[in-house]
Amino acid sequence: HTILTSNTSSLPITEIAKDVQRQDKFGGLHFFNPVPVMKLLEVIRISGTSDETFQTLLNFGKALGKTTVSCKDTPGFIVNRLLVPYLLEAARMIERGDATPEDIDTAMKLGAGYPMGPIELLDYVGLDTSKYIVDGWKKLYPNEPSFQASELLNKIVGEGKFGRKTGAGFYNYKK
């Protein structure tokens, strides 16, 4: 009766499950940070996931007080598939000199109603983490234009600036 699952925000669930003999008992979960605060849980179904296992994972999420959404095993699932290209385009806007980080963040907070701007979010998540995700997707999907990293992002990460966790990223957090 055991169900096996993995929590990931970007790794392919099918790849994680490749050596699992009981594919019918496997599915993916993506909890959002901070887990106690964030209400969403993505439930990812691979081709072998049984209806019973899938429903159990949905029920598990609901029992934890989460709102569950589901999708197939697509890069980034729902949220990150939409979010990562958006974040990368914000970095490319800075790279091209289209706008400053501050103006991009202000525009998205006040114009789109987002609680945090894309540059603030990149620094919060970690520029190294974002680059790792994009590099992995680019390797798996080399012809997908929305999975191309920003040169500026690569440069900042190369300088050891990962955002809030190192005290500097697009913004400087050192007082």
UniProtKB/TrEMBL annotation:
<dbReference type="InterPro" id="IPR006176">
    <property type="entry name" value="3-OHacyl-CoA_DH_NAD-bd"/>
</dbReference>
<dbReference type="InterPro" id="IPR036291">
    <property type="entry name" value="NAD(P)-bd_dom_sf"/>
</dbReference>
<feature type="domain" description="3-hydroxyacyl-CoA dehydrogenase C-terminal">
    <location>
        <begin position="76"/>
        <end position="173"/>
    </location>
</feature>
<dbReference type="GO" id="GO:0006635">
    <property type="term" value="P:fatty acid beta-oxidation"/>
</dbReference>
<dbReference type="InterPro" id="IPR013328">
    <property type="entry name" value="6PGD_dom2"/>
</dbReference>
<keyword id="KW-0520">NAD</keyword>
<dbReference type="InterPro" id="IPR052242">
    <property type="entry name" value="Mito_3-hydroxyacyl-CoA_DH"/>
</dbReference>
<dbReference type="GO" id="GO:0070403">
    <property type="term" value="F:NAD+ binding"/>
</dbReference>
<dbReference type="InterPro" id="IPR006180">
    <property type="entry name" value="3-OHacyl-CoA_DH_CS"/>
</dbReference>
<comment type="similarity">
    <text>Belongs to the 3-hydroxyacyl-CoA dehydrogenase family.</text>
</comment>
<keyword id="KW-0560">Oxidoreductase</keyword>
<dbReference type="GO" id="GO:0005759">
    <property type="term" value="C:mitochondrial matrix"/>
</dbReference>
<protein>
    <recommendedName>
        <fullName>3-hydroxyacyl-CoA dehydrogenase</fullName>
        <ecNumber>1.1.1.35</ecNumber>
    </recommendedName>
</protein>
<dbReference type="InterPro" id="IPR008927">
    <property type="entry name" value="6-PGluconate_DH-like_C_sf"/>
</dbReference>
<keyword id="KW-0276">Fatty acid metabolism</keyword>
<dbReference type="InterPro" id="IPR006108">
    <property type="entry name" value="3HC_DH_C"/>
</dbReference>
<keyword id="KW-0443">Lipid metabolism</keyword>
<keyword id="KW-0496">Mitochondrion</keyword>
<feature type="domain" description="3-hydroxyacyl-CoA dehydrogenase NAD binding">
    <location>
        <begin position="1"/>
        <end position="74"/>
    </location>
</feature>
<dbReference type="Pfam" id="PF02737">
    <property type="entry name" value="3HCDH_N"/>
</dbReference>
<dbReference type="GO" id="GO:0003857">
    <property type="term" value="F:(3S)-3-hydroxyacyl-CoA dehydrogenase (NAD+) activity"/>
</dbReference>
<dbReference type="Pfam" id="PF00725">
    <property type="entry name" value="3HCDH"/>
</dbReference>
<comment type="pathway">
    <text>Lipid metabolism.</text>
</comment>
